[in-house]
């Protein structure tokens, strides 16, 4: 089936957080931003058709997850992620970060520590601070374009009695790689040893494009909470919904008590419909086509840097439509680098510094975007870099 990946959808007058903030001059150039984790392409046709029908029905009342809903989630995890889950493990929640906050409040107290592994998704830091917990960093180690965990340091911070949770990201955003089974087994062993609960964010799991993703619950047992979502998989980032998978009965009950205390009610009727439509062979076919398309865009970007700016190096990429690129070889500070992106190249992504320790000099780019627009943007980038005398 052919998909409209090369069609740029206008986001004017839609309240788009991504496009309303475009720098001055971008629109006159026909330029877009390559920042943000949302795609620039339409979601799967099977979802759009189902939502159009639901919208025409005209009734959008209180909605609960029923047998069909749970069966869709179970079936998807089994067929697409090779992960056998039980129906009672599935806990609908109002988004991944709402779920993370509920877990933080349920399993720690104010002033306790929550461990993160920077560079990592910026909202982890924000939500830990909002819940009045302490951010405890266990920085990743970069070696030859690949990241690894510092397990010695992880055990050190886990052993502190005030540190109650680890927010694990797999696949890891923004580096866009996933952890091997041995890594996850080590995390699980240390967490069990030191009484640390693991909240594993797996919302990029459907976008693995190299190797095989191991569901954390396979190694974490009852000592974990796993977040899944339509958000990244199907470009539903603006819809606040997640299915949290919790194998352990005691952990699940305590989490649900906090979730309900945080004013959880019914689910969005459109999310109900979207879930049933997405978790089908049609949804899987669309994801496969998307990853092939964005993968070619990532190859074009990587080849561009290799040919013209070899001091700029993309990191290993095995997940998602995003790519994490190291610009430190240019020897620029962040201010100068961003001035170039905004005012010379009209080619922006996400500043690496927002992802915490180890992010300076890096940029995250979204490549789930129309290729015809990307090719024009790379021409502008090359011309701007040539003016700077950077081309090799």
From TrEMBL:
Its cofactor is pyridoxal 5'-phosphate. InterPro entries: Aminotransferase_I/II_large, Class-II_PLP-Dep_Aminotrans, PyrdxlP-dep_Trfase, PyrdxlP-dep_Trfase_major, PyrdxlP-dep_Trfase_small. GO terms for molecular function: cysteine-S-conjugate beta-lyase activity; pyridoxal phosphate binding. Its EC number is 4.4.1.13. Transmembrane segments: none annotated. Keywords: Lyase, Pyridoxal phosphate. CDD domains: AAT_like. Residues 43-369 form the Aminotransferase class I/classII large domain. It is an enzyme of class 4 (lyase). SUPFAM superfamilies: PLP-dependent transferases. Belongs to the class-II pyridoxal-phosphate-dependent aminotransferase family. MalY/PatB cystathionine beta-lyase subfamily. This is cysteine-S-conjugate beta-lyase.
